[in-house]
Amino acid sequence: MKILFVSSGKAGDVGQVVRNQGESLAEAGIEVDYFLIHPGLFGYLRGIPRLRRTAARGKYDIVHAHYSLSGFVATIAGCRPLIVSLMGSDIFMSGLVRFLIRFLHRRRWSATIVKTRQMAETLGIKGVLVIPNGVDLSRFKPLPMAEARKRVGYPTDKKIVILISITDKPAKNIKLASEAVRQLHDPGIDFRIVRGVPNEEIPFFLNAADVMILSSKWEGSANVIKEAMACNCPVVSTDVGDAGWVMKGVSGCYITSLSAGELSDAVSKALQFSSRTTGRQRIIDLDLGSDVVAERLHRLYGTVLNGDQTHGSLP
Length: 315
Hints:
Elements: E1 2-8, H1 16-27, E2 31-37, H2 41-58, E3 62-66, H3 68-76, E4 82-85, H4 95-107, E5 111-114, H5 117-123, E6 129-130, H6 145-152, E7 159-164, H7 174-182, E8 189-194, H8 202-208, E9 211-214, H9 223-230, E10 235-238, H10 243-247, E11 253-256, H11 260-273, H12 279-285, H13 290-305
Parallel strand pairs: 1-2, 1-3, 3-4, 4-5, 5-6, 7-8, 7-9, 9-10, 10-11
Helix pairs in contact: 1-13, 2-3, 6-8, 7-11, 9-12
C-alpha cells in the first residue's frame, strides 16, 4: 500500500505530528511519501498543480491530507481517494472554511478524521472518525531523572517546571504559564520553555522535569500531554481538546481553567506530588500508542480502498 501525506510546512519541513504518524505507518509496512505545501496564499495555489503532477506520477493508493487547507488543495488537485485529517486549529477557522469542510466531508472526501469528539461537535459534522494522534512509546518512556538532567543540562538542586512549544503564538498562552509559576514565589523553582529541540530529545526534557505545563487557549489532541504521560511526568494542563479525557484518573495530573491563580495552585499540587505518575499505563489503556493508531489507520485505508462506507465507524 502506497500513501501520499499532504501537509503544509511553515518551517520548510513536515510538521512533527504528521511525520510521527507517517513513521508509525512505515513501521507497519506501509509506504508513505510526503508532499509539502509552502505557506501563504500563493504557496497553496502553486501547490495545486504540483500536487496533481506528484499524485499522478506516484500512483498512490490513497492521498491523506492533514489540516483543512491541505484538504482543499488536494480536492482541487483531483486526488482520489482522499482522506482528510482535521487538526485542532481547523475548528477555529472562518465560517466559510467550516462550511466547506462540512460540504466536502459529505460530498467529496472518502473519510474525514478528527482528533476528538469535541472537534466533531464544534464543527457540527456527523459521521467523522475520531482517531487521536498516537505517541511513540518506544521513544517516550521513563528514564532516571538524574540521567535526563545531566543530558539536558538542568540543575539537580531545583524543581524543574517546563513548557514545550514549537511556537510562541498567542494561542499557546505562554505568558499564563509564566505568571502561574511567578505566583508561587518559590526561588527553588526553575521554569524553562523548551523550543527548537529535535523530537528525539524531548523525552530527556520530560524525564528531567518535575512538572510539565500546557497553558494553551485551545488544542485538538495535544501530543505533548500524551508524550509527558508516557514518560510518567506530572502534567498540569488547561481544559483544552481531549486533555481531560486523557488525564482522567491519573494522580499527579491536573486540569485547570485559564486562570493564572488556578493554574498556579495546580502546579503547586503537582510539585507536592513529588513522584512520577502512572500516566504511561493510562496511555496504553486508551490505545494511544502510535502502533495501535497506525493499525487503525491501516484498517481505514483498507476500508476506503474496498469502497466500503467509512462515515461514523471503523472496524
